[in-house]
């Protein structure tokens, strides 16, 4: 067999095509896909944007998947055929996908395929945002701004498990706010309501949060500056509410806030490997022990990725949307 079914970017959006099964390079794994998970970047590519090394017309899409190693390159980190792995990269909405071994983790023994596919992107993103760039210390007050995605929900749990004194999550949807406390939040606030940053200051006794992980950006940045503690940090991970907005430079200076932008689009594989090391040292035992949980909003057939992306665009989900192979 030399071909497979995959979801690719066509001229008018995602479509299912028969394409060649990719071949792994010396540092790569060829993986039989069991499950794949959607991410916002997949949606951006569906709408015509690009994301780092992905988003080319005719190329299989899908940033996150889990499955069994079929073939391993000679320098692929010791992985071998039959190993269960969870991966990130490009091309996961397909029967087979290739990933560099540095973008893969072994699947913990007790973890299902559905669970496994939810973690590769979220683990790296939030260990990087909360622990590396966020430099969170035990006793910190942390806010995950835009907390109802899988990445945001895991960020709250990592902050809590690593010793945060207070965790605040935000969502503009009442039903989602009602669920944030099940995933590590002490308080859930609505940033669409006037005075939301004053509410954060009230919850923190007038001190502000030591760390904000910002998934939204756009019109919210000055409110975030206003409720961040003196010499606190804002780590800008996502820009779901807008890629540009007014920025109060004087308020930024007055609060002496460290404003840090992060993305994986410009990370080298060596950068990714260094973040993996922190995942393994700081939170891996918690993952293996089942101390984290991510809700799956729905599961759909693997080759219905286009329909799943439309469901994501409606913004009605809580947690992850997972695609499952029929094999």
UniProtKB/TrEMBL annotation:
<dbReference type="Pfam" id="PF00107">
    <property type="entry name" value="ADH_zinc_N"/>
</dbReference>
<dbReference type="Pfam" id="PF08240">
    <property type="entry name" value="ADH_N"/>
</dbReference>
<dbReference type="InterPro" id="IPR013154">
    <property type="entry name" value="ADH-like_N"/>
</dbReference>
<protein>
    <submittedName>
        <fullName>Quinone oxidoreductase</fullName>
    </submittedName>
</protein>
<dbReference type="InterPro" id="IPR036291">
    <property type="entry name" value="NAD(P)-bd_dom_sf"/>
</dbReference>
<dbReference type="InterPro" id="IPR020843">
    <property type="entry name" value="ER"/>
</dbReference>
<keyword id="KW-0560">Oxidoreductase</keyword>
<feature type="domain" description="Enoyl reductase (ER)">
    <location>
        <begin position="7"/>
        <end position="323"/>
    </location>
</feature>
<dbReference type="InterPro" id="IPR013149">
    <property type="entry name" value="ADH-like_C"/>
</dbReference>
<keyword id="KW-0521">NADP</keyword>
<dbReference type="GO" id="GO:0016651">
    <property type="term" value="F:oxidoreductase activity, acting on NAD(P)H"/>
</dbReference>
<dbReference type="GO" id="GO:0070402">
    <property type="term" value="F:NADPH binding"/>
</dbReference>
<dbReference type="InterPro" id="IPR011032">
    <property type="entry name" value="GroES-like_sf"/>
</dbReference>
């Amino acid at each position: 067999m030399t071909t497979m079914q995959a979801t690719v970017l066509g001229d008018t959006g995602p479509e299912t095509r028969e394409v060649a099964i990719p071949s792994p390079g010396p540092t790569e794994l060829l993986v039989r896909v069991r499950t794949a998970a959607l991410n916002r970047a997949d949606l951006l590519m569906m709408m015509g944007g690009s994301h780092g090394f992905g988003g080319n017309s005719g190329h299989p899409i899908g940033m996150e998947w889990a499955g069994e190693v079929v073939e391993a390159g000679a320098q692929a980190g010791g992985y071998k055929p039959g190993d269960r792995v969870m991966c990130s990269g490009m091309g996961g909405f397909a029967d087979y996908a290739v990933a560099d071994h540095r973008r893969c983790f072994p699947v913990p023994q007790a973890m299902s395929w559905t669970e496994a596919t939810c973690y590769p992107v979220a683990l790296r993103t939030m260990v990087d945002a909360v622990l590396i760039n966020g430099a969170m210390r035990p006793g910190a007050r942390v806010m995950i701004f835009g907390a109802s995605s899988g990445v945001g929900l895991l960020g709250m749990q990592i902050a809590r498990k690593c010793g945060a004194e207070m965790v605040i999550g935000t969502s503009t949807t009442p039903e989602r706010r009602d669920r944030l406390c099940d995933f590590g939040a002490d308080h859930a606030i609505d940033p669409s309501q006037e005075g939301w940053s004053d509410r954060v200051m009230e919850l923190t006794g007038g001190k502000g949060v030591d760390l904000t992980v910002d998934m939204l950006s756009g019109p919210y940045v000055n409110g975030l500056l206003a409720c961040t503690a003196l010499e606190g940090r804002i780590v800008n991970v996502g820009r779901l509410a807008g890629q540009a907005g007014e920025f109060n430079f004087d308020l930024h200076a007055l609060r002496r806030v460290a404003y840090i932008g992060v993305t994986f689009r410009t990370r080298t594989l060596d950068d990714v490997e260094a973040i993996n090391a922190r995942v393994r040292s700081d939170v891996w035992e918690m993952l293996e022990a089942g101390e984290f949980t991510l809700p799956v909003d729905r599961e759909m057939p693997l080759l219905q990725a286009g329909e799943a992306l439309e469901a994501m665009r409606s913004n009605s989900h809580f947690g992850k949307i997972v695609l499952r192979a029929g094999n």
